[in-house]
Hints:
This protein is an alpha+beta fold. The chain contains 6 helices and 6 strands. Residues 1-18 form the signal peptide.
Amino acid sequence: MKNLIIFTIVLGAIFVEGQDDFQEETDEYSDGGAACECGELYQPVCGQNGQTYSNACDAECNQTGLQCEGECPCQGFPSNFATKNQRLCPFVIKKVCGDNGKTYDNACKADNDDVKIQCEGDCPCAENAAVGSDDEGCPSCCSTRSPECRRQRVDCSQCSRK
């Protein structure tokens, strides 16, 4: 357990150091767009699919959760990583408020809990706050039907179709 905590801290420091690049890369491939650029850092992880990946970014790029640190097969310790139906989230703090009233560190973590985003920032949301609100308080991405709205699971049900 102590080794897992130390690994998590070291991995966090690595991700924080390049968080802008990692966030940008995550945005690029999470919509099925451009190819991943994970770098050549070799810190092997075992994916939920039983395949060894060179690092956590490479596993995320291949759309698999992680079973354990190190090469496959995992040796008798439980996974503290994303489950098969979740994606790995960057260590970026850009708080969002979910429709369940809970504040999440970022949109990815809210999405992993299958929660729609009500607004950016801490809960509770201001009366007219939303992800890029228009004059009526509706998320602007609702009227444009932007992929960002779908990716962030923004609730557009209260908005009239324009």
